[in-house]
Design brief:
The structure holds 2 protein chains of 2 kinds. Chain A has one domain: Rossmann fold (3-Layer(aba) Sandwich). Chain A is 43% helix and 17% strand. Chain A contains 9 helices and 6 strands. In chain A, helix 9 links the parallel strand 5 and strand 6. Chain A is globular. The two termini of chain A are 17 Å apart. Helices cover 45% and strands 17% of the residues of chain B. Chain B is built from 8 helices and 8 strands, in the order αβαβαβααβββαβαβα. In chain B, helix 2 links the parallel strand 1 and strand 2. The termini of chain B are far apart. Classes of the chains: A alpha/beta, B alpha/beta. At the A-B interface, strand 2, helix 4 and helix 6 of A face helix 3, helix 5 and helix 8 of B.
Chain lengths: 179, 204
């Protein structure tokens, strides 16, 4: 049976968890994301060594994540594109000005399935289309997770965040798989 | 009613040596002033500056990273109004030693133009209680605050104290001119973050 177009671009939640554990992630700080629902369910069920910290806004996700990093922990911040837009000023203060290294995993909510494999800047939806140009304009590096094969980019993201003392965003292109 | 310096005095001078403090801008300047007068600054303080609404989240992250240390967040009323939902996030995470102080003076740009906050009589204590902080308290007398501070730090939290504080008098009159904001105000959070990381590494 051939896989659907979405499946080709879908990161299995179990593989995302394995990448987190490989990267010694000890906290996931989040406002939940539709694109990463499969991951959220795994985290809610419990992942050894990873504490789930739910927040009521993405601004808090960034500040709580910053407090954890200052305290010597290794959080991953999980949210959707709308959430990232919501917390740009906090990201500015914490990552660009105060130089706290943070890795964000951001779902491209609203991305049309026929846009997968194409530039997200060609999306019909503003929410999707403006993400990469916005990140470029504020000098925040991003890496795209277009399938399981891209998960080593999480390792790169943590290394870059530390090296550059700032934010790095992993953009999750397609809904994660319950696998 | 107490003034801003009286509100910040116990935090500056009576906090445990291992406590971590996060302050918003008004409290930051007051703590700076108290430290300068005393000729010493205790380590372990960062400022959520310029970032209104960020103090409780920073404090929560620090508390989760170091549950054995007390965390003291000195918030402002206008700042906290920007991220009221953060109180629910604090309660959900249940940090054990978390003292959340709100300087309630009903003004923003206090000591400069003293604009009214959205709701000068908002009950942060009531909101905190509903969110699940326990205990909660409102204090307006400086002596009572000074006496209560050590005991409040001993309680299993998160604890919220609303301090009724008189606004610093406004300075703006006709002909007043704003001076440029110094670079330090945009750099100090980064400097304090680096110092806090170093301090925690040394002292853990």
């Amino acid at each position: 049976m051939s896989s659907s177009p979405v499946q080709q671009f879908s990161v299995p939640a179990s593989a995302a968890v394995a990448a987190m554990q490989r990267n010694r992630v000890d906290h996931v700080v989040t406002v939940p994301d539709w694109v990463q629902l499969a991951l959220h369910q795994r985290l809610e069920a419990g992942v050894p060594g990873v504490r789930l910290v739910n927040c009521s806004s993405e601004n808090q996700v960034v500040t709580v994540g910053a407090g954890l990093v200052i305290g010597g922990k290794r959080p991953l911040l999980v949210m959707q594109n709308q959430g990232l837009y919501n917390c740009i000023n906090t990201l500015r203060a914490v990552c660009l000005d105060a130089k706290v290294p943070l890795v964000f995993m951001v779902g491209q909510f609203g991305r049309e399935f026929d846009n997968l494999g194409q530039p997200s800047t060609a999306s019909r939806r503003t929410m999707v289309r403006i993400m990469e140009p916005l990140l470029q304009s504020i000098g925040v590096p991003f890496l795209c997770l277009d399938g399981e094969q891209d998960l080593p980019l999480m390792d790169e993201a943590f290394a870059m965040a530390e090296q550059q003392s700032g934010a790095v965003v992993l953009l999750v292109s397609a809904p994660m798989a319950w696998a | 009613m107490m003034n801003l310096l009286e509100a910040c005095l116990p935090v500056a001078q009576a906090r445990p040596n291992n406590a971590m403090v996060v302050a918003t801008m008004g409290a930051m300047f007051a703590l700076d002033q108290i430290d300068a007068k005393a000729g010493q600054r205790l380590p372990g303080r960062i400022s959520s500056v310029p970032l209104m609404g960020g103090a409780a989240g920073l404090g929560l992250g620090l508390a989760l990273a170091h549950p054995g240390r007390p965390v003291i967040v000195v918030d402002g009323d206008a700042s906290l109004l920007m991220e009221l939902g953060g109180m629910a996030s604090v309660v959900a995470a249940q940090p054990a030693q978390f003292l959340h102080i709100v300087i309630a003076n009903g003004t923003q740009f206090s000591g400069l133009a003293n604009l009214s906050t959205l709701e000068p009589h908002f009950s942060f204590e009531g909101f905190a209680r509903a969110a699940g902080y326990a205990p909660t308290q409102t204090i307006s007398d400086a002596g009572e605050w000074q006496r209560s501070f050590p005991g409040l730090l001993q309680l299993r939290g998160p604890v919220l104290v609303q301090l009724q504080v008189e606004p610093v008098p406004a300075r703006t009159v006709d002909g007043f001119a704003l001076s440029e904001i110094p670079d330090l105000q945009f750099q100090r959070m980064g400097q304090e973050v680096a110092a806090m990381r170093e301090w925690l590494k040394v002292a853990v």
